[in-house]
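#lab-general

N.A. 3:47 PM
ok so I finally got the sequence cleaned up, no stray characters, all 175 residues accounted for. can someone with queue access submit it? mine expired

B.Y. 3:52 PM
send it over

N.A. 3:53 PM
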Amino acid sequence: SRLGDAMKVPAVARLQTDGRAAPFAHQGLTSRILVGIRVRAGQSVGETLKAVVADLEARAHFRLERAVGYQEVPETKDLAVVAVGEVPILELSRVMAHPDVLKVLPAPGRDSESSVPRQPSKRVGDLKPGAEPARFIFFVERRAPLLIVATLMLLLLPIGGRALRWLNVFSPYRR
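B.Y. 4:20 PM
back already:
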């Protein structure tokens, strides 16, 4: 850090800071989300959407992609505008805490454009049809390696018991 570097300089006898934290620079890990925004009865949909999105941009660095549609909120005269946007992962709680946000869900589709890097891997669907044992082994290898260990132990116990009995032939203390 720059503060640590300044403290190491022999000519610096004392440092003073104002105590405020520096603004956090987001490192690019974002999530595409669907946001349900409440529009109270009698209010303009466009104005409410602009005001809430502006507030979310200021509080949580939310970026609106587009408004998808709207629907009535059950048992009220309010509307819920459904919008798609992007938000830094660390700011999701601020979006959910906003008083006019009804619901937040992950946005479907466009996974390839996510900012979280993905590791290339085989998929079970990439295997040839009719290769059910291979599919099962692939699934177990990826999702439950402990199952492989338990299966091998169960298979080796009877073989191990027979092998130990056979090795008793060489024991001088045999009955």
